[in-house]
Amino acid sequence: MGSEPGRPARAAGRAPEVRPVRDSPLTTLDTYDLRFSGWGGHPVAAWLLLPSQAEEPLPTVITYLGYSGGRGLVTDHLLYASAGYAHLVVDSRGQGHDTPDPHPDAGPHWVHGYMTRGIEDPHAHYYRRLVTDCVLAVDAARSIPHVDPDRIVVQGASQGGGLAVAVAGLAGDGIAGALPDVPFLCHVRRGAETATEGPYTEIVDYLRRHAPHAAERAFSTLAHFDGVHFARRATAPALFSAGLMDPVCPPSTVLAAYQNYAGEKDIREWPFADHAGGRGATAVEHLRWLRLRGLAPTER
C-alpha cells in the first residue's frame, strides 16, 4: 500500500457532495446522500446520518461494510446517529449498487468473489482500491461541518472490521478510535487454511486450480492488505471483538491482528459465538467504550 496510499487519489479528488434524502421517513434524524472521491478519483457513495437539528460538531462514527454488501437503505443504519453521533456509512465499490468499480479486470485466473481479483499483482488487486476508498472516507468526513475532526472513530464487522484495522494503520492521527468486530482480512493465510465458510474459501478454490506454483505469489499479494501488518502501524485506541466459534473469521486470525495492534487496545471474546459475534450486545459494548474514552456526544 505504501506510506501514503491516498496521495494519488487525493490529487484526483473533488470536494464531497452532500444532498438531503428528500423522501426519508425518519423524523429524529437528518439523512444525506454523500458522494466523495475514492481511488482514482472515482465517486464513492455513502450515507450521512445526523441527530435532527444538531448544531455543534459531533463525534463521528465511520462504518465500513461486510463482504458483498452495499450501503443498503438509510433505515438500515440507525444506531449511532440515534445515540447522538454523526454517522457515515461507506459503500463498498463493486459490492453495493451505488458505487461501481470502474476497473473490473480481475486477471486471467480469478475465481468468484473479490479475494482473487487481481491476485497476481498487488497493484491490481481489488482491495487496493477499496482500502484507499476507506482511508479517503476519513478525509471526506473531516470536511463536513457537523463532524468533529478530532473525534472520528472507524467501525465495521467482518470485511468492515478488517477495513477499520487497515484505516487505523494508515490514517495515523486522523482517527481517535477503532471498533473492529470479527475482522476479516487478518492473517489471511491462516484464514485460508482454517476457515470452513467463505470468503477465505475463495482463495482455497483458486489454489486448488493453480497450486502449488500459485500459492506464494497469491499470499504475497494478499499480504499487502492483511490487517496484521496494518495493525502494527496503528496508534488509535481500539476495541476488538471475536466469536470463538466463528467459521468465517476463525478467532486465531482475529487474535493475530489484536496481538499485533500497536495502539491501546481491548477485546471482547464471545465464547459460543459464530460470525455474528456478540450480536446486539456488541452495540452496548461500543457505546460504553466510546463514553469511557471521552468520545460520546454531549448530552442535550
TrEMBL record:
Protein name listed in UniProt: Acetylxylan esterase
Membrane-spanning segments: none
Residue ranges annotated as compositionally biased, kind Low complexity, are 1-15
What PANTHER family does the annotation carry?
Answer: CEPHALOSPORIN-C DEACETYLASE
Q: Please, which domain of life does this record's source organism belong to?
A: Bacteria
Where in this protein does the record put region Disordered?
1-24
Domain spans labelled Acetyl xylan esterase: 22-290
Signal peptide from the UniProt entry: none
Q: Which Pfam families match?
A: AXE1
InterPro entries xref list: AB_hydrolase_fold, AXE1_dom, CE7
